[in-house]
Amino acid sequence: MLVIDSHTEGEPTRVIVEGGPDLGSGPLSERAARLGSEFTDFYRSIVAEPYGQEAMVGALLTEPTNPECVAGVIYFDAAAVIGMCGHGTIGLAVTLAHLGKIGPGTHKIETPVGIVDVTLKDKNTVTVTNIDSYRSQKTVTVEVSGIGKVTGDIAYGGNWCFIIDHSPVPVIPSNIMALTEVGVAIREAIYAQGISGEEGGVIDHILFYGSPLNPNNHSRNFVLCPDNAYDRSPCGTGSSARLACLAADGLLQAGKQIYQESIIGSGYTLSYQASPKTHGAVVASITGSAFVTREAKLINNPTDPLRHGVTLTQ
User: Fold this and answer.
1) Cα separation of 212 and 293, whole Å?
2) Catalytic residue among 69, 85, 225, 245
3) How far apart are CA 130 and CA 135, in angstroms?
4) Is the domain defined by 132-287 classed in CATH 3.10.310.10?
5) Is 235 among the residues known to form the active site?
6) How many angstroms separate the CA atoms of 286 and 279, rounded?
7) Catalytic residue among 161, 225, 235, 245
8) Is 245 a known active-site residue?
9) Which residues make up the CATH 3.10.310.10 domain(s) of the chain?
10) What GO molecular function terms would the record report (predicted)?
11) Is 221:235 a contact under the CB 8 Å cutoff?
12) pLDDT tens-digit profile of 161-213?
């Protein structure tokens, strides 16, 4: 199996260029569901240790159903198949350019949740124009064991997010462990209390916001991903969901650019326009940089007991 690795603002992506299971030729949403239900061992083997690394997101290249798209893609991490991935899409665009499949300009990529545009500005810089993002619930309070009441917004940016504007733990690198533990506790409380996105959407991204390191920037965030790893980038889908909240509250005008810091100090330039299709939704633009780090051939070792990834048991 041939893969190309990259990182987007510090967050790793592994694109499967050749190989992978036969998921059929139906809609990408159906192919993604099949990958998630029938091929868990496969996708875990790609991104989980020891063959992958912490925080890595996989991107399985597929044939798009829409002929206007240059590629179809299904994203996953060690815990689940995910609908959309902003940093992964930036990494995918840079990888496609590295392979000579796209050049500078705007191209369409099909994901399980819809078609996104990528604008390749140079070999490393990409702007993703995301699907519609929106807030579904404002100021939802969750009772968290050992912490107390935590209030946040529920919003969608390609994945369902719980967004906490005033973090109970300062958003600084020395608190990464504490933020992770609090994020896990909040997500478990959300599940225990039956809180979800629309149509039962699973809230699997927890976002904390705090003051930026650079006062010229908008804010700094910490993002807990479904596999309990933290996002080294500011998280493209999470940033899209946050833009929807800022727009709904009148705190950011359409077209105005802000710089969003990640917990490690990298960042995205963000802006939005009102959705022409959905009232109250926004179309987010996410600009960041990615760098190809590795071309590799993954070797299948049938006798390796850890070939499907490390799983810690009690």
Assistant:
1) 28
2) 85
3) 15
4) yes
5) yes
6) 21
7) 235
8) no
9) 2-129+293-297, 132-287
10) 4-hydroxyproline epimerase activity
11) yes
12) 999 998 999 999 999 999 999 999 999 999 999 999 999 999 999 999 999 99
